[in-house]
Write the structure tokens for this entry.
Amino acid sequence: MVIEVNQITKRFDSFAALKGLSLQVHPGELVALLGPSGSGKTTLLRIIAGLEFADEGRILFDGADAGDRHVGERRVGFVFQHYALFKHMTVLENVAFGLRVVPRERRMANADIVKRVHTLLSLVQLDHLSGRYPSQLSGGQRQRVALARALAIEPRVLLLDEPFGALDAKVRKELRRWLRRLHDEMGLTSIFVTHDQEEALELADRVVVMNHGAIEQVGTPEEVYNTPATPFVYEFLGNVNRLDCQIENGAVDIWGARVTAETQDGTHVPSGRVAGHAYVRPHDIEFTDNASAQPAIVRHVAAAGPTARIELEMAGIPHLIEAELPRQRYLELALKAGQKVMVAARTARVFPAK
Amino acid sequence: MRPSTANNAPAVFDDNPPARVRRAFWRQPSVLPGFGLTMGFTLFYLGLLVMLPLAALVLKAMDFTGAQIWAAATAPRALAAYRLSFGAALIAAVINLFFGVLVAWILVRYRFPFKRVVDGLVDLPFALPTAVAGIALATLYAPNGWVGRLLDPIGIKVAYTPLGVVVALVFIGLPFVVRTVQPVLQDLNKDVEEAAASLGASRWQTFQRVIAPSIMPAALTGFALAFARALGEYGSVIFIAGNLPMKSEIAPLLIIIKLEQYDYAGAATIGSTMLIASFLLLLPINVLQRWSRLRSAEA
Amino acid sequence: MAFGRAHTDGKVAALTESVAVRAVLIGLAMVFIAAFLVLPLVAVFSEAFAKGFGAYVDAIKDPIALAAVKLTFIAAGISVPLNLIFGVAASWAIAKFEFRGKSVLITLIDLPFSVSPVIAGLIYVLLFGAQGLLGPWLQSMDVQIIFAVPGIVLATMFVTFPFVARELIPLMQEQGTEEEEAARSLGADGWQTFRRVTLPNIKWGLLYGVLLCNARAMGEFGAVSVVSGHIRGVTNTMPLHVEILYSEYNMVAAFAVASLLASLAVVTLLAKGGLEWRYGHELAASRG
């Protein structure tokens, strides 16, 4: 199932939720829509589902226009953020709902429906709870019922709105892995919305980073993390140090290394002197004695866990710089607060300031 | 395993052309159906039952000249009736404001015997037909009644005086303040009171400065509702009022008297005056209430 | 300790009042409640049985009284179901959709609560009465509305029509549209969505609204009094019959019929309390 989103615009009163946004999702992909709240990611998901309707633009399912199809006609499985389980129905009846509302002439026999529901419930490992009501389930169990219910109608696409948002950290991790397996085994095309970068990077084949109703970057988790296309992506994905700098004729020296400035939209960096921001990931800071390295003072060390986090004070930079080291390297260097060190940036990227 | 429909559908969508999603400038499109049907029925029902008859009131009043309307609206007997209706409603609403907050307070904050019964009983004026309340109050407060017998020797006459009107209106308006204040008191965060106490405020200061401002919007709403209800009340009042023209005759009763005399102009005029006056009075209260709600929302 | 638990912890004690203050406040409230709520209720039954059980039964078995009971049931029997349908339709349109002018519509639905019942009756007289706007036309068709049963039903409908809608609108707004959207995404049509998903979620709220609507419909006095014409045994409802008996100083009969209405009120309160206690979380949020 190929989903094509073409120049979609959506307005709520005067607020522009989506601004002419395009996206293509390939068959079998698991795509994450990632962004802060208000970025339009949920609106986009609901428009793909047919729960909202775009003001302009088209949605194509395998090349066919779906724009005027209601959600029920699109055969999409939608998992709601708060699950939207039917409170007054048992788990079994919740999952069976989509099979029972089929017009009589096409409806399966009751025995077949029940059999199928049990198969689905076994798939989500909840068959033993089929007689329970939603209020008697834990958050993770509800989530899985919602998923089984969405899968019951054999959707061509699975859409999930903040699927793990309401769960605690441990359950979240477990369900994440489980969802990935399910997606692969069933050969689904899936899109999920999240504001949690870790979730998007770990789970998705491709990540769509959204901000203010527009797409900032689309790419594999590696691409968006290692080569962010815009300052927003840099700051939203992972930790980063931002340094103010002055770009001169398209380039700038960052801690002794020459860095060429780039722009978000690929246009030329204006010549002459312009203000800019340099971005350096904490793990790209090297403790080294080579010629270009800059002096710094260690201010604080947090050494628990596999990586040590070091806070550095550097001349001319008004805030502390954060660096990350593998535990082994940290032990070799034996860093302590107050110690003077020399640091350099392995890689840095520079964008002109807005 | 798969339902038959999904088997060999060559097309992407397995049915006929879609119903177009309807878009209107005045509402957001929705996947939920039935807006046209339910909205249409709502407007039809509302129009037939409320708007059309209300239009009749205005149209009927326009049958008469300005001088006629003015004369009917400001006849001494009508003025006396307004005075009684508005005055008694105001006094009753003030009494209910005080006792309503008190009852809500003890129901939320204290434990005492028969609390559930008292809580349920507060709604009695909503449930008890007004005529029943009227004859019961008239009987109780008549000079030989259970309460009247106690008050008569000390010179207080309730039944068949304006005081009786107030008593009936207190009964009618009693639930409003209690029921608007009660949920607010319940939701009031205990920690602000703890904060006030920790800063050295006495219990009374805490009530005055912390609790009272929080329940003010709700109390005012209840006050406004009780006042509006009392203004138009008829059934419970006429039995205890005595209904002497110029003295203990309420405005709604005057409308009925005019109707019985086939004085439609007079009835329509007094009715319209009452309607307009009550809206004018409720307006500042609504504004005040919105203002205080905004103020507390900012905090 | 009759009033609340003893608090020895200084901080907690600062958050409640002394026993004396509590006792005074509770006492004051109880006196108020007793004088205005308990006494009238007791008085109704006491007066009704003042001349014994036989006189009570005779008063109720009177054919005119029975006719009044019948008319009350007819008026409520027509207006409550119609207002039920209206309430469900209005709250569906208002709670499940976003459209302009919503607050105006809600205000209009609340209107009968802020209009005097006498004015409610008056507007129907001005519309359908002999001298009313549609009076001549109705006369030519030989249809009588005012001083007849249709007028009583209309007046009852007017004063009771907000009850169901007012209960359901906040309830359905609070429940949101997610479950309905889920049902639609699973292929349910409009009717299936309403019957299988929405209705089970609102049934207790609906019953609650109907309960209050019915109590008011059976007890309405002012509006019905204006349009009834007070024809004994024909256009008198129970509350109107109570008025007539009372003005004739037939106290036992008046209070006997009144006691039936008071019993209805007590049953309503009990059922209401029961609903709030058992299904409080499925009723509108505005209630504690």
